[in-house]
Amino acid sequence: MSKIKVLLADDQELILESLHIVLSMEEDLEVVGLAKNGQEAIECCEQSPPDVVLMDINMPVMDGVAATARIKERFPTIQIIMLTSYREVEYVVAALSHGAEGYLLKAIHPKDLAAGIRVVHAGGTLITQEMASKMVKKMSNSPAAESNEYGLSPREMSVLHKLASGLRNQDIAEALSLSEGTVKNYVSTIYSKLNVKGRREAARKARDSGIMDSL
């Protein structure tokens, strides 16, 4: 069974080395690169594409959010987990909107960190209910959210329409030229805004409320 290739990006050398040591102890993980800023992370992805990137948010030269946007644009299959030492909603929401698969706090236990990498590599996302709620609140306050009663953005409306048509995340991603991780993030936010738990319920609520008529 092939190992999960991981790229680490953090401007603090101590954290880089600590993460390297911790992850190297996991039999199914392989650290394939170390980057001290966003630009180096992009270069590493060009030279030897990893499966997963652990991306610090605040770094010199280019921050993690900008680097995530560039990497996702050029290498949509590379999965990115944001690392932060504090709960910065603005930055995390921005990274997720660019397609990051989730975020983890740097204080996380090593075993939980490794588990998070495996979850993302398997196609999952790492967004806590608290962060999902904050994303909904932030997006609901944006001008674009005033177009419908649930505060769905134009892009979320597009995803909802495809979802209600029965398309899978992979098909929605192809149709809208997005990464599958980005689609998953949109779907999670749509569920939170509509207060539903699944696709059928979301589609039914969208039709009952008349949202689908505006598409």
UniProtKB/TrEMBL annotation:
Checking Pfam families in the record gives: GerE (PF00196), Response_reg (PF00072)
The protein's UniProt keywords, in alphabetical order, are: DNA-binding, Phosphoprotein, Transcription, Transcription regulation
Q: Which residues are annotated as modified residue 4-aspartylphosphate in the UniProt record?
A: 56
Does the record bear Transcription regulation in its keywords?
yes
> Could you tell me which residue ranges the HTH luxR-type domain spans?
144-210
Superkingdom of source: Bacteria
Q: Write down the InterPro entries for this protein, in alphabetical order.
A: CheY-like_superfamily, NreC/VraR/RcsB-like_REC, Sig_transdc_resp-reg_C-effctor, Sig_transdc_resp-reg_receiver, Tscrpt_reg_LuxR_C, WalR-like
Response regulatory domain location, by residue? 5-121
Recorded protein name is Response regulator transcription factor
